[in-house]
Each structure stands twice: as C-alpha cells, then as structure tokens.
Design brief:
The protein is α+β, with helices and mostly antiparallel strands. The protein has helices spanning 19-29, 32-45, 56-63, 66-69, 76-91, 125-129, 140-148, 155-166, 178-185, 187-190, 196-209, 220-233, 247-259, 261-265, 269-276, 280-290, 340-347, 353-390, 392-397, 407-414, 418-425, 457-469, 479-488, 495-504, 510-513; strands spanning 49-51, 313-318, 323-328, 336-338, 429-432, 435-438, 446-448, 454-456. The chain has 25 helices and 8 strands.
Length: 516
C-alpha cells in the first residue's frame, strides 16, 4: 500500500447568508412599532447615531403629506442586500431559519468616549426621547396579596390563603387541588398539617373577602355564583353604576346557574323553562343579567396590554384622478443621522487607534441601519402600490370584492422573490377608506363562481358573515342553508368549508345562535 499526497485547486461559488443580510431581512419584516423600538435601541447603544432635532414649524409637515413625496436614498451596498437575499432564498428555502452570531450585534461598550455623549452638560435628545417608560403594573398575586394582608383572619387561614392566591391562574381560577397546593407550598405549610376543612375555610375566606368577586373559583359555575351572591349582598344599596340589578332577575340568574348550568351552556332554553317553571321572558332576563358578569374576573385587575396597531401605510382616494394612492406613515419613526463630530474623530489620527476602531465600527453599524430602513421603506411602498392596482375593487366595493392574489403575482410584477413579498407584508397594516386592514389579508387563494369569475377565500368569509348578520335570530341559518344562499350568489362550496370559515369568523353553530 502506497500513500500519495497532492495539491489541487478547485474553483467554485458558494453563497453564504451574512449577518447583515439576515438583519436586513429582519428589518424588512418588522412592523412599524417594532422598527421604531429597534431604532431607539440603536440610538441608545450607538454613540455615533443621533436624533435629528425637529423644529416645531416642520412637525406637521413631517407627519403629513410630505412623507409620500420623500425620496428614499439607498446606499448601493444595502440595496443589493435584498437582491442577494432573494438569490440565496431561491437556492436555500430554509434560509430564514438561520441565525447570526453575536459578532454581528451592536457594541454597547462606549469606553472612554461615553462622557462626551452629552457634551457641554446638555441632555442628549435621544435619551430624552426614551426617558419616559411606563412602569410595570402590579401582578394579580401582588394586588390580591395587598388585599389579603389587610384581612382579619386567623394565622392558619392567613398562611393557607397566601398559598391559594399564589396559585391562581391568569383568569383568577384555582385549578389546583388542595393536596397539590400543600406539596407546592413546602415545609412551612406541611408543618401546620392542614386538613381539607382548613383549606376549604381558607378558600372561602379568599373568595368572600377579596375583590373582584369570582376570584379563586374552581370552575365557571362557581365563578358566576360568587358574582351573583356579591350582587345580592348589594341589593339594598343605592347604586348608579351599570351593576344595579333587579332582585327577581338576580334570583332567576342564581337558579339558572346553580340548577340548569349545563342546559344553559347548550342554549336549551325551552327545556330549562319546562323543568324550572320559569317563562322564556324570565329566563332571558336572567341571561341578560349574566352577560354583565365575567368568566375571567381577574382580568379586571390585570389587563392584557392591547396590541397597538400602527399602520405602516396610508391609502387615500384622489377624486380628480379617480385613483387610490399610498404613502408610508414613517413620520412616526425617529429621524436619525450620523454624528459628524464622531465621523471626523474616526478619521483623526490624533485620536487613539482603539477609539478610532470603536468609532468606525459604530459608524458602520449606524450607516447600515439607516440604509436598511430606507430599503425597507422602498420595498414596502412598492408592494403596497402593486396591491392597490391588483385589488382596486376592494377599495371600491368592500371585502366581498377581494380577488385571489398569490404573492407570486406581486413578486413577478416587481421582480423580487416571493419570500421578500412575504416578509414585506408580515404584520403590516394599511389605513384605508375602509378602515385599518392587514396588508396580508389582500393575499389569498380562491375559487371560481358559476360565471367563471375568481373570488378570494377572504371574500367568501365576508359573504358568509354578511349572510349570518342578516338572518332571523329566532330561526338562524344552518350551514346547509348558508351553502344554498352562497350558491344563489354564484359561489358553490361544500358544507364543511362553510363550517370551517364560520369557525374562523368565531361564529357559533345555528343552535347556539338561536334566540328564544
């Protein structure tokens, strides 16, 4: 056996997804609010990036119509990022799953330069812009704990009550059994050797002494009964709020929840009336009162932060030219620029090599971010304008006029990759004459009508919603009846498809929609 070594040269091309290309992809995909946060983070971490001071006289102009006429200046290097990304995505379908290393992240080490950021003792505008942040709201356990600490109960009940409060879920329910509670609580509670009666006493104390009524319930039925009992305790009080109740209605509601809860949940009101001796009018009065109660009482203390929708684009109608036009609402983004003093320092050989290296790195990061944002805006506006052309009927006639629009159609029209279109429309919203609409909702598959026209799935859902909205609530339409009405409108789909679309719309079955 003979071993032989040799050297060979091989020429080949390999495309790699650079960290900045991945970051460009992320910038494109960000909704406006998230992009604003990203820019503010860079303002905080990068001393070479600064916020442009806006004079009062130019504020309205920046937030208004001049935005749509602004030219987007894009550096050649940044503009080619998306083209290279498209090429890479074409040959690597899983590219979006890649991540970049920490080497690509922005530096937060300011070194000796940090003190100079607020030169002359004046406050930096970008720090002023980020100085006010809402304080974290108190959690459910903290708010209930504050109430519990003021209650006058025995030490034994007090300890067990703390355990119960700390194990409530986000809706305020106690989903855990007493044995499991003792195991979770540890040695302090185990040493008390609490019996089931002790736990029941502590639970009743939590339920009766803490607000809002209904917390610490073990199921929906108990939750409603606790709230009904709390209303009953206030019957003699003079109340001007919406929770003023009639004693008879309260008694009907208590009877319905305590004795006929299962039938009530299945909307079997005639059966309830026959078994209870109540009239349908009395039952409906009790149900009307119950609608004012909550199945998630703890939400009154801890509110989920509502998702703030900030439209990325605004669509308006030009009557003179009979056309719709779009512009970006990027006036909400911080207006940033390169700090020229730091730019000069990066080229000044009197500055130490370490500081110049630090400045050059951050200047590069700042310039890249500005270019990536500009490229994002340029791509997004092109996509929006193409959608306006393709979906003109929606803006004229409403959701029922939506056409099937594959993303490939827009991609081919603009000469970009489908993945770029998908990222551009992700979590983006348009403010239109027909309300705020998700940009992605304009893209969907569809089916053909009897006349041979194409109609989108979103349009079919809108039509189903319209049909259900106009039905007789005493005789709601079954899915089969909806199929027939759709067929009369030239749309032929299967019953199971109607059921699927109805579920997507959050509309219950005909039996549950029936009003007696």
């Amino acid at each position: 056996m003979r071993f032989q070594t040799s050297q060979q040269m091989k020429l080949g091309q390999h495309m790699k997804l650079a960290p900045r290309m991945i970051q460009s992809m992320e910038i494109l995909q960000m909704p406006l609010a998230e992009l604003r946060e990203r820019i503010e983070q860079e303002l905080e971490s990068n001393p070479t990036l600064e916020m442009v001071e806006i004079e009062a006289g130019t504020m309205d102009e920046r937030d208004g119509g001049s935005t749509r006429e602004r030219e987007l200046s894009i550096e050649p290097e940044s503009a080619s990022d998306f083209a290279r990304l498209d090429e890479y995505t074409e040959s690597n379908p899983d590219a979006a799953e890649n991540t970049y290393s920490s080497d690509g992240k922005m530096s937060r080490d300011y070194g000796e330069l940090a003190p100079s950021r607020s030169g002359g003792g004046d406050r930096d505008a970008k720090f002023e812009a980020m100085a006010s942040a809402p304080a974290r709201g108190a959690s459910l356990s903290e708010q209930l704990g504050d109430q519990w600490s003021l209650t006058d109960v025995s030490d034994r009940v007090k300890v067990l009550g703390w355990v119960i409060i700390s194990n409530l879920d986000e809706d305020g329910y106690l989903r855990t059994g007493f044995e499991e509670l003792e195991l979770r609580a540890g040695q302090e509670v185990s040493a008390l050797e609490p019996t089931e009666a002790d736990w029941e006493l502590a639970l009743q104390a939590v339920q009766l002494l803490l607000e809002p009524a209904g917390v610490a319930a073990r199921d929906a039925q108990e939750c409603l009964l606790l709230q009904i009992d709390a209303l009953g305790d206030r019957l003699g009080e003079e109340r001007d709020d919406q929770m003023s109740v009639d004693g008879d209605a309260l008694e009907v509601a208590r009877t319905l929840v305590s004795e006929y809860f299962e039938e009530l949940m299945k909307n079997r009101l005639p059966k309830v009336a026959a078994r209870s001796g109540l009239t349908l009018d009395q039952i409906n009065t009790g149900i009307e009162l119950m609608r004012r109660l909550s199945l998630s009482p703890a939400r009154r203390l801890v509110h989920d932060t509502p998702e703030t929708i900030v439209p990325d684009g605004i669509v308006e109608y030009d009557e003179e030219e009979d056309r719709y036009f779009a512009y970006l609402s990027d006036g909400r983004l911080p207006d940033v620029r390169i700090n020229q003093e730091y730019a000069k320092m990066s080229a000044d050989k009197k500055v130490s090599t370490q500081d110049r290296t630090f400045l050059k790195k951050n200047l590069s990061n700042a310039q890249w971010l500005m270019d990536a944002v500009a490229q994002r805006q340029h791509t997004l506006l092109r996509v929006i304008n193409a959608v306006l052309d393709e979906q003109r009927e929606f803006f004229d006639y409403g959701p029922e006029a939506l056409k099937p629009l594959p993303m490939k159609t827009i991609a081919d029209r603009l000469g970009i990759h489908v993945a770029t279109v998908s990222r551009a429309v992700s979590e983006k919203y348009l403010m239109t004459p027909r309300g705020v609409v998700p940009l992605r909702s304009f893209f969907s598959g569809g089916l053909s009508t009897d006349s041979g026209e194409d109609v989108s799935a979103n349009a079919v859902r809108a039509t189903i919603e319209e049909i259900i909205g106009g039905e007789d609530k005493a005789k709601p339409l079954s899915d089969e009846a909806i199929v027939k009405q759709l067929k009369d409108r030239g749309i032929e789909i299967a019953r199971r498809t109607v059921a699927k679309y109805r579920d997507q719309l959050g509309v219950p079955t005909a039996r549950m929609r029936k009003q007696f």
